[in-house]
Write a structure and sequence with these properties.
The complex is a heterodimer of chains A (466) and B (183). By secondary structure, chain A is α+β, with helices and mostly antiparallel strands. Chain A has helices at residues 2-7, 15-26, 116-121, 162-170, 226-229, 236-240, 386-389, 397-402, 412-423, 425-450, and strands at 47-56, 60-68, 78-82, 85-89, 105-111, 175-181, 192-196, 200-202, 209-211, 222-224, 234-235, 252-253, 257-259, 270-273, 275-277, 288-289, 294-296, 299-307, 324-332, 342-343, 347-351, 357-361, 374-379. Chain B folds into two domains: 2-152; 156-183. Classes of the chains: A alpha+beta (466), B mainly alpha (183).
């Protein structure tokens, strides 16, 4: 015993717990940080709750959504007068717009069973190669799409022939998209009725907004009507101070706007919304807001309504009593746009029958909501697309091929973490390999250090400690 | 291969659990049971390494390598499995080197320390394996309580990697110096 203590250095064994302990307390740091150049901005909160209720009458279906938001974002992009020029502010950026300009939104994709994978994988299946906002986004804006609309999943440009796409649509291979916008539809109690096929498209008809910009003249097309709104423009300092609310003339509409007057006495800091909100027409106007969509005490509360049968089966999923459907939700908040929303896994929707979300039948014009919500967890999906999920790089690809639902394998929190890690995949893999090797080197060094102390020097009987 | 891997991991699991128990008994208890534990430890450790190598090899064949390296859980499973193998290899080398004197004096505490580290890492490996097949345990909640959510890839910043390597190098150098001094 005495000899090994003189020649060996048993206390060097502590090198291993020190190395591993240091790794433990520092793990996970040094890689994940925002990188706008690569379209990377990680939300502070990776998950959030969304409460949903549904009800239906003989003719209409109603969805009520309630979600927390620190403050409402009811302005979208704007035009600010600066030294003779109208400067656009509020463009979509990775993450939250620094000026707080970008409208809040809630959206719902809906299917009637014509797209079986949607009930299993929800919005994941609508994210194809080259999606806008990804680090490897395509040179042109690539929106949501159905995987079957592409000849090659890995090639965003490889669309099926137009007649094939039309046949898919007629066969029901598309998703209905309800899209409520805090600025570009809500002021007129409207939502945008869209659908997802080869891309995200608006239903036939007129959209609830148009752009307030005359490119040739380099000025807005419209301004606030001072006689109606009480002012010709908003003021930038009011926006910055958060003084623009529902009682402010925060939107341009056909009955509150007049043609832009370049000779008006414009002052630096005058602000005109860059969008004009207008009444929808045709299939695009199928969805309306019941009552008013309002933010109050930290929560948005929005109820949308639509006819069960809109008469537009190529744009909408027609709903029926006792029908079973699939829905998935998303929310934009904190002045985010593009892919920086939080999304849900798919939930089943039953009209008068058991489902994750059961729409309750009622008689009359409006539902009498009880305090009985379906709680849905929304999560940040990161940069995960369908081509990846069905590739060899996803261990669950065989499960997808067999039709195993995502919920059977992953929780929302897990998916959010994976979504973030996917944005730093190469850096994380490199650091992980180095960490693994560094641990093994530490072990090797410690065992070499201990070898002198573990020479066989015992004079004791075999197996007996000294 | 997945089913085969599930079967094969039972062997290092059993051997390493047994080896840890033998180190505990051999280091802390007197008597016949302790003697037997000390005497039988080396063969158990050798068998454990052979079993672990086979189990790890089978695990690497469960999924394509690009899938394994793309999954945070799989990355963690691989890292902890290899670190478990590393620690129990240390134990095996030291016990083999010291022979019947492996538990003499302060050595027993070294063996005890390594065994506890090794079994802790291997328990983590098994827990992550459970996650990979959809069977989670409360142990991962314990890890989370101590600061690691197993859904996050375990990696450290570059400066920590450098320190870990430095620790290994310094220890090795001191060990080699000690070896010369002992000659």
């Amino acid at each position: 015993m005495a000899r090994q203590d003189k020649t060996g250095i048993p206390w060097l064994a502590l090198g291993l717990p020190i190395a591993l302990g240091l790794a433990w307390v520092t793990h996970g740091s040094g890689v994940i940080e925002d990188d706008p150049e690569r379209n990377i901005a990680i939300p502070d909160e990776l998950t959030m709750p969304l409460q949903v209720q549904a009800a239906y009458s003989d003719s209409h279906i109603f969805f009520r959504y309630r979600w927390p938001s620190e403050r409402p974002h009811i302005l979208h992009d704007v035009l600010v007068y600066e030294n003779g020029d109208w400067v656009k502010k509020g463009s979509a950026v990775p993450g939250s717009n620094p000026d707080g300009l970008h409208e809040d939104r809630v959206a719902m994709m809906l299917d009637d069973g014509s797209v079986p994978d949607f009930a299993r994988y929800g919005g994941y299946m609508t994210i194809g190669a080259g999606a806008a906002g990804f680090t490897d986004e395509a040179p042109e804006e690539v929106s949501k799409s159905m995987p079957g609309t592409r000849i090659d999943l890995g090639d965003w440009a490889s669309r099926q022939a137009p007649e094939t796409l039309q046949a898919q649509r007629e066969a029901g291979y598309f998703l209905d998209l309800w899209h409520w916008r805090g600025h570009r539809s809500n002021p007129l109690n409207l939502a945008d009725d869209q659908w997802v096929g080869a891309e995200r498209s608006g239903d036939a008809g007129r959209s609830p907004y148009t752009t307030n910009w005359d490119g040739d003249a380099g000025q807005p097309l419209w301004m606030l009507d001072p006689e109606v709104a009480g002012q010709a423009a908003l003021r930038w300092e009011d926006i910055e101070a958060g003084r623009v609310d529902f009682d402010s003339p925060y939107f341009l509409a056909e009955d509150t706007a007049i043609d832009f007057d370049p000779n008006h006495d414009w002052q630096n800091g005058d602000v005109i919304p860059r969008r004009l909100v207008r009444q929808t027409e045709g299939s695009r106007g199928d969805i309306t807001v019941l009552g008013e969509g309002r933010w109050n005490d930290g929560y948005w509360d929005v109820t949308l309504s639509r006819r069960l049968d809109t008469g537009n089966p190529l744009d909408d999923k027609i709903l029926r009593d006792q029908g079973l459907y699939a829905a998935a939700f998303s929310v934009h908040r904190n002045a985010t746009g593009g892919r920086w929303h939080l999304v849900s896994l798919p939930v089943s929707l039953g009209l008068g029958r058991d489902a994750d979300l059961t729409a309750i039948p009622f008689q009359g014009r409006t539902p009498d909501w009880a305090d009985d919500w379906k709680e849905v967890t929304l999560f940040y999906p990161g940069q995960v697309n369908w081509p990846l999920l069905v590739s060899r790089a996803h261990a669950g690809a065989p499960d997808i091929a067999e039709g195993t639902p995502v919920r059977a394998r992953h929780s929302e929190r897990q998916l959010a973490i994976y979504g973030v890690e996917m944005e730093f995949k190469d850096a994380i893999i490199r650091q992980w390999i180095l960490t693994l090797i560094a641990g093994l080197i530490a072990m090797f060094g410690v065992v070499v250090a201990l070898l002198p102390a573990f020479r066989n020097t015992s004079n004791n009987r075999k197996g007996e400690p000294s | 291969m997945s089913g085969l891997h599930h079967m094969l991991v039972h062997f290092p699991l059993g051997f390493w659990a047994l080896a840890t128990l033998m180190v505990l008994i051999g280091a802390l208890l007197p008597g016949r049971m302790a003697e037997l534990s000390r005497a039988a430890l080396l063969p158990v450790l050798v068998l454990s390494l052979l079993a672990a190598l086979v189990a790890i090899a089978s695990g690497l064949l469960v999924w394509p390598i690009e899938a394994s390296t793309s999954s945070p859980l799989a990355r963690n499973h691989i890292l902890t499995a290899l670190w478990s193998l590393g620690v129990f290899t240390m134990l095996t080398v030291l016990v083999w080197r010291a022979g019947s004197a492996a538990f003499d004096g302060a050595r027993r505490w070294v063996l005890l320390l390594l065994a506890l580290i090794g079994i802790s890492i291997f328990a983590t490996t098994g827990t992550i394996g459970g996650h990979l097949v959809g069977a989670t345990t409360q142990f991962s909640e314990l890890l989370k309580l101590f600061g690691w959510d197993v859904y996050h890839t375990f990696f450290v910043p570059t400066w920590v990697i450098a320190v870990m390597v430095l620790i290994g190098i310094v220890c090795a150098v001191l060990g080699l110096k000690g070896r010369r001094a002992a000659l």
